[in-house]
Amino acid sequence: MNDTVRNRPASPKDEERTAPAPLKVITAVDILTVVGLVVMTPIAWLLPERYWPVLGRGVLAVVMGIAPAWVRKRARWIERCVGARTLPMPSSNVALYGLSRYFEDNLLLLKCYRPDRWSPRIEVEGIENLRAVRTPGRGVVLWFSHFHHYSLVSKAGMHGAGFAMSHLSHPRHGFSASRFGMHYLNRVRTLIEDRYLGERVYLGLDDASAALATLREHLCAGRVISSAARAVARRPVPAPFLGGTLPLATGAPVLARETGAALLPVHVVQTEPGRYRVIIEPEIAMDRSATKWAAAEVAAREYARRLEPVVLCYPDQWEGWPVMTIAA
């Protein structure tokens, strides 16, 4: 991991110099992913969920035994990110278990392909916060935190609670950014997730305007949309978080500010093997007197403040450690 800190905002000249890289047709990682999915499918179908963490950590312990320096480096970075806070487990376990969660999340996805249409067991907490803001004609933006199991569980949980979301997605969502991967591999994930969605709205590879226009229309019509709280943006907001800062794209709060929609943070965590909780927080109040960008920045910082205690409880389930920055 690169520990270098870069807090300078991008300039127009920077953006002019940054041209999108040409897409590869297929990569070696794509081939390994196909092999991995084939191997993991019978495991997912036949092995009870309570054994998934044992299997995942066992496999990764062997892999990391070959490259222990990676675990030490990631653990040191996590310690710096946490600062004066206390984690419920050693930082080395956060690093190792985080990789195991990725393995388990793929087993979860593949198990949903069983002929009996198996689905995970999900508890939705705070549904009253969502219902409280569902007034006629007012849309809702659900801003999902980037925990390991959020992608599938969030959609299944909200569907089970009676809400068919329109979800903002990228063609790279899934396993790959190659042409082959986006056309074939990523559909392994989206085919299952789409069972639980009202609609998936895709960003363009180089232009987000059409997707955002569609979401604005949905919000003005009083619908529920969802988006992940990620750092992918030209100028993310550096929100104070734990012992450093967390860069956050402001697309979700900007949409809420533009349309008058409610903005609700949502976290998805695993409480025990095979059981998950979707936590819907109360609405983040938007400053309607400020510009949309200023209001979005304040909202992003409030979101990061609310995220802190959840990450400290489930540090191995959060995927945001690598994108944090620490003051030099």
Write the layout of secondary structure elements.
Elements: H1 12-17, H2 28-46, H3 52-66, H4 68-82, H5 91-111, E1 121-125, H6 127-133, E2 140-144, H7 150-160, E3 166-169, H8 179-193, E4 199-202, H9 209-220, E5 224-228, E6 237-241, E7 244-248, H10 251-259, E8 262-272, E9 275-280, H11 292-313
Parallel strand pairs: 1-9, 2-5, 2-8, 3-4, 3-5
Antiparallel strand pairs: 6-7, 8-9
Notes on the protein architecture:
The structure is a single chain. The chain is α/β, with parallel strands linked by helices and 328 residues long. It has a single domain (25-323), classed as Glycerol-3-phosphate (1)-acyltransferase (3-Layer(aba) Sandwich), CATH 3.40.1130. Helix content is 46%, strand content 15%. It has 11 helices and 9 strands. The strands form 2 sheets. A 7-stranded mixed beta sheet has the order 1-9-8-2-5-3-4, sandwiched between helices. Strands 6-7 form a two-stranded antiparallel ribbon. The chain is globular, with a radius of gyration of 20 Å. The model is unreliable at 1-18 (pLDDT under 50).
Q: How would a textbook summarize the main sheet?
A: 7 strands, mixed
- Give the N-to-C terminal Cα separation: 16 Å
Determine Rg (CA atoms, Å).
20 Å
- CATH domain class: Alpha Beta
> Structural class of the helix and strand makeup?
alpha/beta
What's the overall geometry?
Answer: globular
Which whole number gives the mean pLDDT? 90
Estimate the helix proportion, in percent.
40-55%
CATH topology label = Glycerol-3-phosphate (1)-acyltransferase
Q: Which residues form runs of ≥5 with pLDDT under 50?
A: 1-18
| Count of helical stretches | 11
Any idea how many domains? 1
Q: Identify the strand order in the major beta sheet.
A: 1-9-8-2-5-3-4
Task: Please tell me the CATH architecture by its name.
Answer: 3-Layer(aba) Sandwich
